[in-house]
Predict the structure.
Amino acid sequence: MRGEVIRRVRGGIAALVLVGLVVAPWVVDDYTTAILSRTLALALVGVSVALLTGVAGMPTLGQTAPYAAGAYACAVVGSRVSDVGVVQLAVAAAAGALLAALTVPLVVHARGVIVLMITLAIGELVVIVLGRWRSVTGGTDGLAGIPAVRPFWGLPALADDQARYLYALVVVATLVGAVLVLLRTRAGLVLRAGRDDETRLRASGHRVALHLSGAHIAAGAIAGAAGSLLVVAQQYISPADFGFDTSALLLLGVVIGGTASVGGALVGAALVIAVRDWLFGVLPGHAPLVLGALFVATVYLLPTGVNRARGRLRPPGAPALQPDQPALHEQATVAELHR
Amino acid sequence: MTGLLEAQEISVRYGSLAALDGVDLRIHDGQRHALIGPNGAGKTTLLNVLGGSTRPQRGTVRFDGRDVGRLGPAARARRGINRIHQRPAVFPTLTATENVVVAALPRVVPRRRWWPGGRRRAAQRTAGPLLDQMGLTAVAAVPAGHLAHGQRRQLEIAMALAGRPRLLLLDEPAAGLSAIEVGRLVELLQALPRAVAVLLVEHRLDLVYALSDTVTVLRDGQTLAAGTPDEIRTSPLVRQAYADGVA
Ligand SMILES: Nc1ncnc2c1ncn2[C@@H]1O[C@H](COP(=O)(O)OP(=O)(O)O)[C@@H](O)[C@H]1O
Ligand SMILES: [Mg+2]
């Protein structure tokens, strides 16, 4: 009964949020609309972070790497080859997946905090390469003047911020839907099992490294696609869009959202990015400090995220947790950081 | 007749301690073999070596005529060696059904090979009857982390069977089970297809005698005796070992 009520309430809130997202660009000014589009792109990267951190159990600070690969691939293709959105999305996703595939050997055999350090290093390396490889990336100046995207062959180019925002919203909704479907398949089930107990998964005959590689590449593709949305939103990109602070904020957002939840990751990442953008306005120069303090407070006060209520709900007739069993929601969020 | 499993001269050392010291073991197709011995004799270590989670310093393991010594636990499970652990190992956030589905996936045979979701559905079909056999139908939708100890153990047995084993390694499967659950376990093991070989580590000798055709007695990492249950029951050596050891 209670589960039913909560499901309804959640469904209602989700519907309201969706309506709000659709009408938002007509309520706020153009500048804010452009910022919202960028926030959508970052929230999608947040989903890829949640996929790795919460579902696959590989906490990551490096999703800005495939995000950047996708963005730059999209910017280059958009300037020189095609202004068609689906083409740019496919190229960006492929670039993100390729970068993720190249880094697979570095991450799949590492665990916990080590993964955080390795992915952090990968992210920083990518930023350095972007700054140096001037002929393609424009160096620290970045790439500007990327032509407006047309979503599909034959459609008009998206000339204003509202249209670009809606394009981003449709793409994010489609990709998030695809991730949710994927998580319901065998692949999602096996990933969750591996997060619970990798040794047990191996004992059942599963190729764990293969599953993790697949998840890593899929998350790279999603982040890459998000990169193409950033290009659409800003029509300008530079290495500053992909710094360590962005990775840290996304991880923070995903932790707030409850690591394993895709919806939570979207909301958490969007919230954190919005707070950052707002803080930069009201506290010039101090925003990183405030965010750092927020990060520490979140990790200590709220280790289980917004979704903790879920873990508390026991299925009907189920006995209480055994005293020797760590609480489930703790296993789902804190455990993977220490694996 | 050659063995399904042949382990020769297995030695495992932990520092100065010889957990296993030149142990031989041979199990035929469908054989029900028990491994007994006092605590610390090396029984779990031997299962670890056969299952692939511990590499012995010396010795060879052949399964189905092939050297599997270099294979890890996953590859051995895919060849048909499945085990349950002394401490039940299940996926705590997955439901009982999902646990069995995950365990079934690597060896499941879908009806239509390239149909999307075919493997998942085939695995799902095997889960229901197995949970039923283990008396877990009522808790099929409960996350395994919420199950009582005995239920988790039975779930792990269902998972091992879902992997369509040719050799089942059971490490004290009756430990922590109620009398009813032990009864169900014995029935289940007796009803296993004759082709499935079982290596059973068990302290309770009544279960050993009920379930096995042959018995090996380990002590301090060495084979103390081997034979039929009747031979072992009457062996003075074994009585002595058990008097010195636990029971
Ligand atoms: N990982 C390990 N590290 C050190 N010693 C171990 C390890 N595993 C087992 N041992 C030791 O090896 C011996 C055999 O252990 P085990 O195989 O668990 O015995 P049994 O299952 O027969 O009770 C024991 O003395 C045990 O303390
Ligand atoms: Mg033992």
Observations:
- Residues 2-311+326-338 of chain A form one domain.
